[in-house]
Amino acid sequence: MKNLLIAVALLASATSVLAADTPIVGNVQTRCLITTDTNGVFGNPLPSKLSTASSDGGVVPVVRYDVTLADAYLAKVTTPTGFSTSPSLSDSVTWTGSTAVSKTSDAAMSGYEAAKVTYGSTTQFDLTKAGSTWFSSTATAVYGVSKSFPGGSYTAIVLAECIAK
Amino acid sequence: MIMLVVALLAIYATNAHSEYLYGLTGNMAGTGHTWGMNIGPSGSQSLKINGVFYQYTPVKNTEDDMVVHVRNKRFGTNEYIFSSTDDWSGLPGGIPITKGFVIDNLPIELWGDGSIDVEGSGSVVDANVVYSYKYNNDCLTPMSDPSCSGYIDAVLSMMGESKIEVYDPLADENIADVIDEKAELDEEVQQEDDEKVKAKDRLQRMLSGVNDSILYANVSSQNLLMFAMSRSNNLNPYYDKKLAGGVYKETVILSGGELPDNAKGARAGLAQQLLHTQMVNSQYEPKE
Asked: With b meaning 16 or more CB within 10 Å and e meaning fewer, what string describes A71-91?
């Protein structure tokens, strides 16, 4: 009887040693896609000014948000506050910028512009409808106090984010 | 793996067979808010609409009600084959709206006139309506196939534009000269052929005579040989015949022992002689 108990105990212990790791795999398909619709170009209307405004000879960058799930995301677009590449600058650069809804795929999205929230250089839109929305950003850089930008190539970045609510 | 390759080949073959061309229209609403559907290359009877894209900017007060319809009538009916409605009621204007639709390759024949219709207070500016389409180029040139629409018109048009002159080849001097020369040449060739045929016939006849002679000689020699061979067989039986020996005695007996003259015969012979003499002498008699 004692031997039998020992054997059962050994079997139990042997069974308890067996283990398996069962993976759980899941894929989350993005429901908010950001695409650059138009690359921006700086115009140089004044020696001290770079601007994306068409009136200044520039091209306004446009970014498109494609949302397949309504009322689930916030669009955050941040205009540049510095050059990502530029010649060496010895003076400060003053940045101004704004972002607006330039086009929608649904009439109900026309309220995005009125409902947008701006803080700092960032503009936030509540994407309450499914569909595509185009946002255009203007950016203006003024060098020093009427100081001429040194010659060279200047690049700035508009940051577009899609934040889940 | 093999099945995959076969499937890919089948897909490739299908794609290679159906060669569609694709295109986009211009802004159909560029000159007004109604438009016809005369799109695509002329003669492309298999043209199919596979997409509609439009954009416009509503002009309105936020508090106003406004509904905008972008649509196409189904050809020949009051129904719509395509219709998209934007309800701007209570919404601000000024922001362009753009929409795109995938259409399931509906033939152009089904598409009636298009329009942008506004209900309520407000208007639409900067309207842009574009259709995407596909077609195959089999009938891009209507005369490429009689089944293409416009084939008859194209043929008639071509005939009307070109001056048709009936060309009579027999009236062409160059061709007539060539025909004459050819006829003479044919005649010469025919004569040569006839002479060749005659010579050949003569030769054949001559050869045939020689052959006949040879054949006849062969037959004669064979006959002679056969005759010679059979002669001994034919004569030998006679040589083998033997007459029975003995004396053959006179069996005729003359009774009385006296043969009288034939008086009747003598008279006939004399008469003949007299007549003969008379005939011979008559040639010497003087003529009257």
From this structure: eebebbbbbbbebeebeebee
Q: What is the pLDDT of residue B134?
A: 87
N- to C-terminal Cα separation, chain B: 141
Residue A17: inside a domain = no
- The residues of chain B scoring below 50 in pLDDT are 1-18
Question: For residue range B236-267, what is the model confidence (pLDDT) as tens digits?
Answer: 777 777 777 778 788 887 777 777 788 999 99
DSSP string, A101-122: EEEESSGGGGGTTTT-EEETTE
pLDDT over threshold 70, residue A11: no
**Torsion A104-A107-A113-A115 (CA) sign:** negative
Distance CA B50, CA B250 (A): 147
Cα gap B119→B114, rounded to integer Å:
16
Produce one character per residue of A22-35: b if its CB has 16 or more CB atoms within 10 Å, e if not.
eeeeeeeeeebebe
Cross-chain residue pair B91–A103, CB shorter than 8 Å:
no
pLDDT reported for residue B216: 77
Is there a contact between B195 and B201 (Cβ–Cβ < 8 Å)?
Answer: no
Question: Which residues on chain A are in Cβ contact (under 8 Å) with B91?
Answer: 107-108, 110-111
**Is position A15 within any domain?**
no
Chain B nearest-CA distance from A114, in A, is 9
Interface check A128 vs B, CB under 8 A:
no
| Number of domains observed in the structure of chain A | 1
Give residue A104's pLDDT: 94
Task: Report if residue A16 sits inside a domain.
Answer: no
> What's the confidence (pLDDT) of residue A65?
96
How many whole angstroms separate alpha carbon B69 and alpha carbon B88? 11
- Strands A159-164 and A73-78, bridge-based pairing: antiparallel
Q: Which residue of B68, B95, B116, B126 to mutate against A (max A Cβ within 10 Å)? A: B95
Is residue A155 in some structural domain? yes
Judged by CB atoms closer than 8 Å, whether chains meet at B98 and A104 is answered as yes
Please give, rounded to a whole number of angstroms, the shortest distance from the CA of A76 to a CA of chain B.
Answer: 19
Q: Which CATH number covers residue A110?
A: 2.60.40
Q: How far is CA A59 from CA A37, A105, B97, in A?
A: 12, 22, 21
Q: A33 lies in which domain range? A: 27-164
CA geometry: angle at B67 spanning B66 and B68, to 5°? Answer: 125
